[in-house]
Amino acid sequence: MISDHDPIVAIATAPGRGGIGVVRVSSPARLDALIEAIAGRQLTPRHAHYLPFKDADGVLIDEGIALAFPAPHSYTGEHVVEFQGHGGPVVLRRLLARCLEAGREQGIRLAEPGEFTRRAFLNDRMDLAQAEAVADLIDASSEAAARSAAASMTGAFSDQVTGLADRIVHLRMLVEATLDFPEEEIEFLEKYQARSVLDAIASDLSHLLAQARQGAILREGLHVVLAGQPNVGKSSLLNALAGFEAAIVTPIAGTTRDKVVQQITIEGVPLHIVDTAGLRETTDTVEQIGIARTWTEIEQADVILHLLDATQPQPELDAAITSRLPARTPVLEIVNKMDLVDGGNDGAGAGGNAGAEADAGAGAGADADADADADADADADAGGSQRAARVSAETRVAGHPAKRLGISALTGEGLDTLRQELLAIAGWNPSGESPYLARERHIQALLQAADHLDIAGEHAALSDRVLDLFAEELRLAHGALTSITGEFTSDDLLGVIFSRFCIGK
Ligand SMILES: Nc1nc2c(c(=O)[nH]1)N(C=O)[C@@H](CNc1ccc(C(=O)N[C@@H](CCC(=O)O)C(=O)O)cc1)CN2
Ligand SMILES: Nc1nc2c(ncn2[C@@H]2O[C@H](COP(=O)(O)OP(=O)(O)OP(=O)(O)O)[C@@H](O)[C@H]2O)c(=O)[nH]1
Ligand SMILES: [Mg+2]
């Protein structure tokens, strides 16, 4: 386990060439000796000094800016010094080596990923959700995501969470005071209007949850899987959405063997569009493997676009596919090649009876299940089951027919509507309040808190002597909320969170 007391050093800027490169040191103890050794003098706090950085023999490493932030007025809350040099990998490595050498007596070592921010958290410079937002800001893949991360970084999300937690504590205090006077228990609920106070908290919590869900969509990007029979135009649609020829398109059925993923953004929302091998019965070994992968992708999708060919309705085959789609995942049925059929864009060309006589299990690749879950858990944040929480469950009720939309991947007809539908079906609310770039961890905690408030509400509804159970549920709800800001956090959790940061952050 790493010690939170060693001096640490790292290159803080991205690897490779750049205009400027920064080597940053943080230490609980003063850094006077190291500064003197490298910069040749002491530094005025928070003052940019232009000077030569020298090695142990007095040979020039670089001329740059040295900047000292004495504790506690620094990013980490410790003593920090920055050497801002020219941004070349070799010069920065020399500067790094020089810091390790000059700080050896104080026990300096290379920083672990996220360790500067971990210290900022441990020194109360920020709470856990803010620290996570720092990493999310760096990792943001769209402007909307970056905006939301910046808001969370300054504490906007944490303030909401803490506000709810405080209201729960207040209610709990009233209950627990009453517990000492059993004769007053029955009156308690009326006296403090506990029920309506609780309802108000629960309602604000669900509001926050909605904003967090929106943020999770921004953070992770939506995984949209294009699935359907061969030759319906999945790869053509991928190319149309991506704006270039990302996947091979031919008139030959079974062209796509392996998945092809393209990142796009729609109104600032990042989407990962996954093109897959067409689903059919086949004896071709390579194609069979491709089809197995298609089902794996389908299992992990946030949204499934089930493509149909307007010119070749094959309701039985499509129904077989429909019957195998996971019930929890929203599905849009896309009737493609509308440019080839008369009668405009109403999706009728493919025959509107996809739901009829579903021949369960007879779909192509029916035996492809075995490794469907193989790498779903490779990354806890990216696993299919975890992702499911991002897309509101109401979007599609199991067994109900999916929404249909006619398009032409060739002419672009219907694509604008498709883009809007994609956002809508994913639960994206463009006019909603600004989302918080929340993580799955936060959403799970909010859901837990909501559950406990629900149960508390049930206890409050009963007439006799359940106040201690009521109080206990409030305690659990409060605990779930404070796990977001990291009031009480295990070292294991901190390890998991900060190890995903980049080095030097
Ligand atoms: N050069 C440089 N740029 C950087 C950072 C850095 O560490 N160094 N940051 C980080 O990686 C971010 C900025 N974060 C920072 C947060 C707090 C303090 C700081 O010195 N806080 C003091 C003084 C505040 C003040 O002057 O008003 C404090 O809070 O007491 C500095 C940077 C992004 N840019
Ligand atoms: N007219 C017309 N042709 C289309 C349209 N979309 C795709 N096609 C044609 O349909 C054929 C198959 O398209 P692909 O995009 O390769 O189909 P796919 O679903 O990816 O097929 P597989 O990879 O074999 O599963 C190609 O010849 C395309 O040019 C469309 O909207 N209109
Ligand atoms: Mg294809």
TrEMBL record:
InterPro entries: G_TrmE, GTP-bd, GTP-bd_TrmE_N, GTPase_MnmE, MnmE_dom2, MnmE_helical, P-loop_NTPase, Small_GTP-bd. GO terms for molecular function: GTP binding; GTPase activity; metal ion binding. SUPFAM superfamilies: P-loop containing nucleoside triphosphate hydrolases, TrmE connector domain. It holds the Pfam family MnmE_helical. K(+) binds at N231, T250, I252, T255. One of its GO terms (cellular component) is cytosol. CDD domains: trmE, TrmE_N. It comes from the Bacteria. Residues 221-427 form the TrmE-type G domain. It is found in: Cytoplasm. Residues 351-395 are annotated as: Disordered. Its cofactor is K(+). Mg(2+) binds at S235, T256. Binds 1 potassium ion per subunit. Residues 355-367 have a biased composition (Low complexity). GO terms for biological process: tRNA methylation; tRNA wobble uridine modification. Its main location: cytoplasm. (6S)-5-formyl-5,6,7,8-tetrahydrofolate binds at R24, E82, R125, K505. Belongs to the TRAFAC class TrmE-Era-EngA-EngB-Septin-like GTPase superfamily. TrmE GTPase family. Exhibits a very high intrinsic GTPase hydrolysis rate. Involved in the addition of a carboxymethylaminomethyl (cmnm) group at the wobble position (U34) of certain tRNAs, forming tRNA-cmnm(5)s(2)U34. Homodimer. Heterotetramer of two MnmE and two MnmG subunits. This is tRNA modification GTPase MnmE. It comes from Pigmentiphaga litoralis. The lineage of its organism: Bacteria, Pseudomonadati, Pseudomonadota, Betaproteobacteria, Burkholderiales. The gene is mnmE.
